[in-house]
Structure prediction request, 179 residues.
Amino acid sequence: MAAAYKSKILTKVISLCHEKKKTSPRLSSIIDDMNHSIRMEQEKKSEIEEDGFVILLQALLKEKMTSEGSVIKICSDNELIDDAIGNSVSPMLVGAGEYGSITPLYLAAEGETITEIPNTNLINGLVILIALYYAFNISYPTTKGRNFFAFIEATLLDNSEDAKKRVSINKILKEMDDM
Prediction:
């Protein structure tokens, strides 16, 4: 499932973000970080792009990227993973590291670690997160990640019911189709 998603969506989202980076300092910063990581570790280019894609998608959809307001939180060097996990309410991914080597990666909810997800990237972690919502019949949070989850549902699961109601997602999907 994740492999099909990578080939179907990843390239289009990254290309769209490159087009929009001039008008978005947040996108520009993420792309610059990705490019720096690729220059430093050319052999990990695909892993870096896969991790960067998930972070870019949050920024493209204008989602918050704090531990209290995001679906995925990658802690910087001066942040504690335990604090991000402790601040989690609804299920989310929490990790640390650089693009292409985000380890450890945890699935967290209600201030607790549900599980560590070893040896994977953010796209696979995202698929696991979506599967958790489905397996336990949990509603997506209404205060964070609404556009993010609706976009993932529309593109990964071909369920565009919620996405059709969101102007920002329709705009992005149209821009991707026009590429």
Q: What stands out?
A: The radius of gyration is 15 Å. The chain has seven helices and four strands. Helices lie at 2-20, 25-40, 45-60, 81-86, 122-135, 146-156, 167-177. The first helix runs from residue 2 to 20.
